[in-house]
């Protein structure tokens, strides 16, 4: 049995539910994700219909997380009725393709709160 190509096999059942989700690749402690369209009931290691992007969650030397999206194909699949997983919806919201996901706002709020607390504790330590 040969492996399916990374960009997908392109075969699917016409009436089955589709979903846009992440497929985890990479090594231990070094994840890398392909953003793919696949049938909803299949597990992430099954052959995918199409790869529509990639996401590298590890920050590079400029503290950036890299995302590559094929927006034309994502819009095509959303128009065909494909569902979205929550992590994929978050990334597409940050990229501007979809409305920003509410979890993104909550994460930003928590990050600002912890940064403010750290700054306040540092100011108290400096004055003491």
TrEMBL record:
InterPro entries reported for this sequence: Ribosomal_bS16, Ribosomal_bS16_dom_sf
GO-annotated molecular function: structural constituent of ribosome
Similarity-based family: Belongs to the bacterial ribosomal protein bS16 family.
Cellular component aspect of the GO annotation: mitochondrial inner membrane; mitochondrial small ribosomal subunit
Name under which the protein is recorded: Small ribosomal subunit protein bS16m
NCBIfam families found in the cross-reference section: S16 (TIGR00002)
Lineage: superkingdom: Eukaryota
Alphabetically ordered keywords of this record: Mitochondrion, Ribonucleoprotein, Ribosomal protein
A biological process term (GO) from this entry: mitochondrial translation
Pfam annotation, one family: Ribosomal_S16
Subcellular location: Mitochondrion
């Amino acid at each position: 049995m040969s492996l399916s190509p990374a960009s997908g096999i392109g075969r699917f059942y016409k009436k089955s539910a589709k979903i846009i989700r992440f497929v985890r690749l990479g090594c231990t402690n070094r994840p890398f994700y392909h953003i793919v369209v696949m049938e909803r009931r299949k597990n992430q290691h099954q052959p995918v219909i199409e790869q529509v992007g990639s996401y590298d969650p590890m920050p590079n030397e400029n503290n950036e997380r890299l995302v590559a999206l094929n927006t034309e194909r994502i819009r095509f699949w959303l128009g065909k009725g494909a569902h979205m997983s929550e992590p994929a919806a978050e990334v597409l919201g940050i990229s501007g393709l979809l409305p920003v996901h509410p979890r993104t706002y909550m994460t930003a709020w928590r990050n600002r709160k912890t940064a403010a607390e750290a700054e306040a504790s540092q100011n108290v330590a400096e004055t003491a």
